[in-house]
Design goal:
The structure is a homotrimer.
Chain A lengths: L1 H17 L3 H5 L2 E9 L6 E2 H19 L2 E13 L5 E12 L6 E15 L2 E11 L5
Parallel strand pairs in A: 1-6
Antiparallel strand pairs in A: 1-2, 3-4, 4-5, 5-6
Chain lengths: ~140, ~140, ~140
């Protein structure tokens, strides 16, 4: 049950990301949510900052006429006594230019902490490690 | 339960597609099933038409000695009061030429309507949007 | 339930593989586990042999500074009366060189036989067919 619910949460969340719905996407994080990446010096903190980052990225993509799809897979879900879910998964970014051919853009490994929110979840923290990244 | 069942339905359906089993694949649609794509002017309608389309594609692939794999992911399943399931997912086509290297061929986003059929499902309608497609 | 458990088993197993944890990975097979591939003349048999194969591959990858990610998808699980699970799935290998761009390395189709082991599973046998392979 939990596993399928988490899978659907991520499917919906990534759809918002790929559709460039910055505010709705930011709202899938907790108010004080944190989004860190190995190739950024500091994490984004809070919905405003997280949403603003997507807004810029989505505008740049739209200008180039490209479509991105985030794929998650190889998901494990670990339920902790405090009710949080610690998840780990791989994520790919696939990009298709207008009139062009789909190509792999990125391969990553991600660690999330999720908290329950009604029938679904919110991301309290996310940390993305980019394959091939060199500091 | 439903979510896992739908995942397995799609896994089996895509296996039939990739194995070129045109008639068995067509039988995973309802008799009057509809298969539309943004890059075709009109949808295929009914099992005969849907199966014939796969037969031609599978023959062309076999002639070139290439293998295709359809991957579905980022699936959401929405159960409607009328008993139908409205699903959304991403789909990739990965092609490997004989003696060659696997490559991304297509990235798409798909909307289906499924109806129950015994322990499994049939596709009543499918609509595929191809990333990068320009009218 | 079973389906989600099997999905998580594979996610954890592939993580061990991609992290190069040879002994822990080998321990996800039964003692007499068998790992066959269409492009090898004979299967690996037993944990020692299976682990040694991964150890060599992981060392070679580490030397080149590359990261590999195994993705499984399109999974079907068939429970047999004897309690074993016969699974079929597609698997991709995605490789990212240090400082470079992620690329598809391999597309495969796999057949496994799993046996229950506590709350999880062990692989009794695995057979991998490589797309594009020519004998």
């Amino acid at each position: 049950m939990t596993y399928a619910r988490v899978q659907q949460f991520y499917a919906a969340q990534m759809r918002l990301l790929d559709d460039g719905k910055a505010e709705e996407w930011a709202a899938t994080f907790t108010e004080d949510g944190e989004f860190g990446q190995d190739r950024r010096p500091a994490p984004r903190r809070g919905r405003l900052d997280i949403g603003a980052g997507l807004r810029r990225a989505a505008d740049a993509l739209a200008e180039r006429g490209a479509v991105r799809r985030h794929w998650l897979g190889m998901l494990t879900v670990d339920e902790r006594p405090d009710g949080t879910l610690h998840t780990r998964y791989y994520a790919l970014v696939i990009e298709t230019p207008r009139g062009g051919v789909a190509a792999l853009h990125l391969s990553t490994a991600v660690d999330d902490v999720l908290v329950r929110h009604g029938d679904s979840y919110l991301v309290r923290s996310r940390y993305v490690v980019h394959d091939g990244h060199t500091a």
